[in-house]
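Lecture notes, unit on protein representations.

Consider one protein chain, 107 amino acids long.
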Amino acid sequence: YKNSTCGPTKITISLQVSDPDKVWSVVIFTRFMDKEGEGQTKWDTGHAMTPQGSDGKYSITLDASKITNFDAYDYAVFRYQFVATDKNRNEVARTDVYEDIDYSVCP
């Protein structure tokens, strides 16, 4: 983040739910964990993902500067989790927390 000349500043994340008839929406929740041991941020309030047709595929493109607490740490792991809800906004599924994206300041 901070400078678009040394790497991407956006990421697109996609998923497919296993039972699309039960799922009305999917929200991704994010937080950052400091790679230098200073802790982690609180979970954000979530970002609604966009359905990609009727077969249970969803995606979202996140801009680094628009993610809550994006500048809390210089070197972090981007943690995220998906929550699926039904038409009544009841939770029907929740994934594990993923930690497979490194996030760092661009000098």
